[in-house]
Design brief:
It contains nine helices and six strands; from the N terminus they run E-H-H-H-H-H-E-H-E-H-H-E-H-E-E. With 229 residues, the protein is an alpha/beta fold. The longest helix is centred in the first third of the chain and has 20 residues.
């Protein structure tokens, strides 16, 4: 067990601590109504959620830009619904979404409890592929920024998880080593495989009902971290 080795705990943010799906749904409900887009929220989210995950994967792989990510995840969702919408309105929706997303701040259940549990004994940090200004607002507005010593994002690093450069930057900022660090996140590719490739310990939060694997232990609830740390 790695409990005796770990001094630094690195968390992903979206889907791990910050309830992205819930906050995103509330944001879409607001902006679709305000912009008089006549689609069912449930129907929209059903097609949008997998498209968004697909585009974030492309973004991690440097196959689309930030601008393309924000536009095409919406366009593809409306295309799937066969809803006719002008390009100008898609651009406005993409901008409105970013403006309002961080104003809703539901956390994954037991986030505060586990941070309170860990903080006295470990250095806590964030490694996120999200955009700097948006992620800082999420952390601040949800009142969890003070738990973290270092927040490393992909814009700061110039690369995205699972690129080893972002993990090495995080270790440097935190002044620690892979052997003394654990990465906790929801993405097998970005968080777990990326961190383990340079020697981190890891815990995979199974937020997307993924199949079991042998890379590290998987947990469903943040409170399960207490069994490991």
């Amino acid at each position: 067990m790695f409990k005796e080795l770990v001094t630094d705990v690195f968390f992903d943010l979206d889907h791990t601590l910050w309830d992205f799906e819930k906050n995103s749904a509330i944001t879409f409900n607001k902006i679709l109504l305000e912009n008089e887009v006549k689609v069912s929220l449930n129907d929209f989210l059903e097609v949008y959620i997998p498209i968004n995950l697909q585009y974030w994967k492309l973004f991690r792989e440097e196959k689309v830009t930030k601008k393309e990510l924000r536009f095409y995840r919406l366009k593809k969702a409306f295309d799937a619904l066969e809803y006719k919408i002008k390009e100008e309105l898609i651009i406005k929706l993409s901008e409105d979404y970013i403006v309002h997303l961080s104003s809703f701040n539901y956390l994954i259940p037991n986030t505060i409890e586990i941070l309170e549990y860990l903080k006295p004994n470990y250095n806590l940090h964030i490694i996120t592929n999200g955009f700097h200004n948006v992620q800082e607002k999420k952390l601040t507005n949800s009142n969890i920024r003070n738990y973290f010593n270092c927040v490393i994002d992909s814009e700061m690093a110039g690369v995205k998880k699972p690129n080893p450069k972002i993990f090495k930057l995080a270790l440097s900022k935190a002044n620690t080593t892979p052997e003394n660090s654990i990465m906790i996140g929801d993405s097998l590719e970005a968080d777990i495989l990326g961190a383990k490739a340079i020697g981190f310990h890891a815990l995979h939060i199974n937020a997307h009902n993924e199949a079991r694997h042998d890379y590290c232990d998987m947990i469903k609830d943040l409170n399960e971290i207490k069994k490991y740390l």
